Amino acid sequence: MSRSEFNIEDALAACLEGLADGQSLEECLARYPQYAGELAPALVLATRLRAETWPVLSTGARFRGRERMIAAFESRQMAGAWWRSVWGQVGLVLVMLVFVAGVWLAFPGRQLRMHNRPASVPGLIPAAAQSATPIPPAPTTQASVTPTSTLTPTATSTPVGKVVRISPIARTLTGLSLSAQSASADLTRTATPTPPATPSAVPEAALEEPAGNATSRPPDDGNCEPGPARSPEPTRDTEPTREIPTSEPRETPRPPRPTAEREPTSVSETAEPHETAAPPEPTDDVEPTRQPATNEPRPGIPTPRPTARPEPTDTATGATPEAETRQTPESHATGAPPEPTSGSEHSWPQATPEAEDHSPPEPHETDTSSAGAQHR
Amino acid sequence: MQDVCTDAQMIALLEQAKSGDSAAYDRLYSLYADKIFRYLFARLGQREIAEDLTADVFVRLIRVLPSYRVVSARPVASFSAWLYRVAANLLTDHYRRQRHRQHLDIDDHAESPSDDHSPDVRALTLEQDRSLAEAIGRLAEEQQMVVIYRFAEQCSVQEVADLMGKTAGAVKALQFRALANLRRILSPE
Q1: CB-based contact A58 B51, cutoff 8 Å
Q2: Residue A274 domain-assigned?
Q3: Could you tell me the pTM of the whole model?
Q4: DSSP per residue over chain B, as a string?
Q5: ipTM, 2 decimals?
Q6: Which residues of B touch A50 (CB under 8 A)?
Q7: CB–CB contact B55 A68 (8 Å)
Q8: What CATH number does domain B7-186 carry, 3.90.76.10, 1.10.1740.10, 3.40.50.300, 3.40.50.2300?
Q9: Domain spans of chain B?
Q10: Which residue in chain B has the smallest CA separation from A61?
């Protein structure tokens, strides 16, 4: 059966082709007589199907269908255009963002902040350096030392001008504390002005200015040699200046001679001062004073304070020891730094030993007396 | 099958349509609108629905043609088969919607003239030549396709084979079985 059917299928296909070509049904069946009985009804049905009028789209339906297609086409085109515009806008925005990001990254400061957080430190350094010029630790340390030096100059200067003022006050107040306070106030005043003039050269002028206010400046200038050296340091830290005042009274006693000597010493104490102090006169005065003192050990009492002695050791760049050595013996002898103010006031030269006494202000009076007596 | 155009022309026409040429779409509509309608009418038996679905086929064509890959070997047959496939998918969607409606209506008395076959038969029964349409509707889908291609579209065996993706021998067998089944259906016995 399968074979015959397969053959019938081929015969049917061939007969349908013959009918399509215009052959008659009999002619086709005559070619396949063995399948004529089965092929005849199939061929009749096939002829009927072909003769059937298959429906066709009506004119209206054709027109409507075409319109729908065109409308869909246009809407799609518009949608595509809209999407294009949207994507175009998105692309434009992205381009702008990229540009902005590029500018952001290109900006040096931004870069440092953005990328170089670890490296940002160096980047920040400049800014910090600007604002922190006073801040830098090293300078501050120096400043800590310098305050003493700054004080010393004031002290040197104070002797002349301040002495006049302070001495009466101290006497009346019966305490060097008061004098010290006043001195500290003066110093703070003097010191405060200095800060603005951070530059090494400026500080000197600044110191001079306050001195002028204090009226003792001229002598300070003479003695101020240390001052200039101080100037750089004190200008920055106000604190040191505050601390200094306390020391000033102590130092002020020094003035007698030590002031001149000490000032240098003080200046010398501060590493910077030496260099700056190197300038004209003061250096000369200081140095000679130092040399004699230098012979003695330099425990490193950079600042006039006795307490500072241990500290100065660090900063005591060499010149300080001299002053200390001188001072120490005296202070030890006197046992206290009393006189500084009074002694300095009355007799700068006399007070030289006293000036050595960096000990607190209170003892100054007693010290001054004793010190002056001793020296004399 | 009446060749709407040569393979080269079909390739150019499809490329133009894909590039967004409205004239190319209009040309494709003119070539295939009647064929698709006949195919749909033969399976549906309802002129209005067949017409609407025919329009839907070409609307969908605009959407999917850009993604169509032109076959250089047999561009006409390939595109025709692909377009008929689109129409068949739309017809399937139509049947699904129709079934859903019937379930919603809960019309238990609705008689289906030929429950043993697809709903196409029900549609065909609505046409004037109900006997022939009903008989075609009772055929299997492949046999229906062969009958439509071979007698409605006047396609050759090879063309039907190309459209259906079958061999010529398979198409001949399907043709023979379809005619035998139609004869049984149409014969009173």
Answers
A1: yes
A2: yes
A3: 0.46
A4: ---SS-HHHHHHHHHHHHTT-HHHHHHHHHHHHHHHHHHHHHHH--HHHHHHHHHHHHHHHHHHGGGPPPPSSSHHHHHHHHHHHHHHHHHHHHHHHHHHHHHHHT-TT---TTTTS-THHHHHTTSSSHHHHHHHHHS-HHHHHHHIIIIIS---HHHHHHHHT--HHHHHHHHHHHHHHHHHHHS--
A5: 0.77
A6: 151, 154
A7: yes
A8: 1.10.1740.10
A9: 7-186
A10: B51
